[in-house]
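A further point concerns the way the authors explain their paired sequence and structure data. An entry of this sort, consisting of the sequence and the corresponding backbone structure tokens, reads as follows:
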Amino acid sequence: MNFTKTTEQDSNYNHLEKMSVLELVTNMNSEDKTVPIAVEKAIPQIEKLIHQIIPKMQAGGRLFYIGAGTSGRLGVVDASECPPTFGVPHNLVVGLIAGGDAAIRKAVENAEDDSNQAWLDLQKHSISENDVVIGIAASGTTPYVIGGLKACNENNIITGCITCNQTSPLALTAKFPIEVVVGPEFITGSSRMKAGTAQKLVLNMISSAVMIQLGKVEGNKMVDMQLSNKKLIERGTQMLMKELNISHPTAKKLLLAHGSVRKATLYYNNENK
């Protein structure tokens, strides 16, 4: 198969240094508008992968993201937002980045070039065939990610990927690839731009759809969210006021006593049958 790294092709724009700020941001915005369209084309692939994840997690399995650089950071962000948003344990969705947690803030030299390290990182979490592993790499050529998925395939672990180049080595390795082809970046090769935005959108879709299917949302509300700040306590209070037709003080007291909207609602309904 032909493999062209469109993420590395020359930008459609030149002489960026001569553009005004308005021209720069307008042109970036024009490029960004193309990203959701590229994601839309990949929806059938996204759906297939989500259908693989749901039964594994219903049976007690976990979801792992592996990536390097921007891709790795995006996986870590998505994983870290699942517990506060959906009230799930911190080890249910796990983001691993080449170079370890230090690489979240500062690039670790050559970390992405080690094709054996991802499997070692996954083994620290007792990875098994109950779990699903998604490799994230805009280029589709990152050795850390490809090596990790190859090892998973050899150990009968379901693999997916999110990449921004078609028929890349990564997409050919993953059992359930997602290819969002966003084309050349505004700054040539800067895949933190359109490619990063595309990956974030897909990650949002995967984790949110899975959690909804696992029953972590009722109606359109995050009934299991963690009450980790005043804003979220107020959001939960408002949800209870609306759902149970009770006053603000009563709702807040109920929420704080039970720790989540779901538990508070169940308690109130049982007490008021």
Notes: Residues 74 and 200 are 6 Å apart (CA to CA).
